[in-house]
Amino acid sequence: MRPLVLSCLPAIFAAFVIAASSQTPSQGRGVQPVTVSFPAAQSAKPLDGRLLFLLSNDASEEPRMQINDTPRSQIVFGMTVDGVKPGQPMKLEATAAGYPVRKLSDVPEGDYTVQAVLNIYETFHRADGHTIKLAPDRGEGQHWNIAPGNLYSKPVKLHVGPKGAAIKLTLDQVIPPIPAEPDTKYIRHIKIQSDLLTKFWGTPTYLSAIVLVPEGFNEHTQAHFPLVIFHDHFVDGIEDFRTTPPDPDLKPDYSQRFHLAGYNRIQQQEAYNEYKLWSGPNFPRVLVVKIQHANPYYDDSYAVDSANLGPYGSAIEKELIPAIEKQFRGIGQGWARFVYGGSTGGWESLAVQLFNPDFYNGAFAACPDPVDFHAYMTTDLYSQKNMFYIQGAEKQIEQPAMRDYLGHTLISVRDNVAYEAALGDHGRSGEQFDIWQAVYSPVGADGYPQPIFDKETGEIDPNVAAYWKDHYDLNAKLQRDWKTLGPKLQGKIHLYVGSDDTYFLNDAVYLMEDFLKTTGTPGVGVPYEGEVLYGPRAEHCWNGDPTLSNAYSRLHYNTMYLPKIMDRIAKTAPAGADVTSWKY
């Protein structure tokens, strides 16, 4: 899952109340007519995309930087436009999808800062015969508000109300390109064009990675190294690795999420501590890799082959990883490859281990996205009929999508889906429910992902749910294939999750643990010989360290699993394997 933008979960409601109370007293409701255009100087050709109209009563930053899936979000309305010519006015329709206010007619009258953004789409002629329009990733990790090339208007303060003067905005600003990060002694980069993905998408498609090389990499040219894939969301660096002490001029902040003063300074100190370990004597010399595989649907492909995204799993394992191992002297054998990660990265780590069990020698999956769709967050996709609510005796009971560590609901599933609907139709929001749908669903008749549920009513499609179960329900796969798969996975499955996970991801882990406990019994197959651990009272994303709080352990991915990885290598490396050249 994409991590919360906010680091202050317990304070969200207080902030929401403050934002709401700062609203100018309402004299009516509704937004006057809004038209948006772009000049030929920004694009001489017609454009397709998602037009977003933003309103904010918080002057601290631009409205485009204040839209998210929490109660602190400011207001966004979206509509899809096709073939709009330079200078042609785009009228914001009354049917534009909105969040957290659903309709333009319901916006309270008051003083706002308004802004418009056009998230530009390109046309893809895919190998499966479908032609679709999507926003390609442009190096930013599928964030429409900072995507290079997207057009936006300058923020304008004005009075919004049904009797106000018509609003006319001009998209005369262009988000600039993102400069490439340079290589350093420890941080290296690699980028390849994927033949598999280029064929699928019908346009040159690339995979890249950030590689943390070990101390002595340049000097020990005869050494070859184990490879560890750190599955994560799109990143442009390795944030938890810092070669200098904390910035002495850094103004300490306060983390409401972790109840810690100066958490930004703590993060820098822990990153510097990691560097000292990494460069010190007797530390395991391995390659740590973060893959960059943002795509037209999300900041991450989920590292598996799928009908809508194409063969990302095959491209990573057949094209990118061999290229990394060749350039950075990886050992290049399954016994010397490992995966770990949290949230989306946790699901990916477990999934690639299950789908290609001989290619990796262990998966450390923290707070994984739902590993059993009987617990798709708060919904059982196989027995329930609706994503939004549970049917009570006399009324429908809304279901939460997020909670804080005390159990307070932060957003309902219905509102979370409305947020995504405002950002894009046909699964083009670039957000969480839409990427799950893109990865797990078959292709719909229109070329876009077949919806798992109706975004207006919440009604679940049982046929799509059955497809999900057959292809991407990881616990279903374990149960279905354990007799043949189990022997290849012994000692490789490690699961960690907080008992109060923000997104209820612990529920699916409970179900997988229930099955894993049955392994080794008659009729099931060999024992799994791994581990499943829970962090008491820990929210997203607890990763398995019982000695430290989540605030600290989440900063230690690149060091905390290495002792277990070294032990696994010692036990499983085949005779004659290179277990010495990288130990210096």
Short description:
This is Esterase. Keywords: Signal. With 584 residues, this protein is of the alpha+beta class.
Q: So what's the CATH class of the largest domain?
A: Alpha Beta
| Corresponding CATH architecture of the largest domain | 3-Layer(aba) Sandwich
The CATH homology group name of the largest domain: Alpha/Beta hydrolase fold, catalytic domain
Quote the CATH topology of the largest domain: Rossmann fold
Organism: Granulicella aggregans
Protein name: Esterase
InterPro entries: AB_hydrolase_fold, Mycobacterial_A85_antigen
Signal peptide: 1-19
Give keywords.
Mycobacterial_A85_antigen, AB_hydrolase_fold, globular, 13 helices, eight-stranded antiparallel beta sheet, alpha+beta, eight-stranded mixed beta sheet, signal, 27 strands, 584 residues, Rossmann fold, 3 domains
Model description:
It comes from Granulicella aggregans. The chain is globular. Residues 5-26 have low confidence and may be disordered. It is α+β, with helices and mostly antiparallel strands. The protein has 13 helices and 27 strands. The relative contact order is 0.12. Helix content is 24%, strand content 22%. The strands form seven sheets. Strands 2, 3, 5, 6, 7, 8, 9 and 11 form an eight-stranded antiparallel β-sheet that branches. Strands 12-13-17-14-20-21-26-27 form an eight-stranded mixed β-sheet.
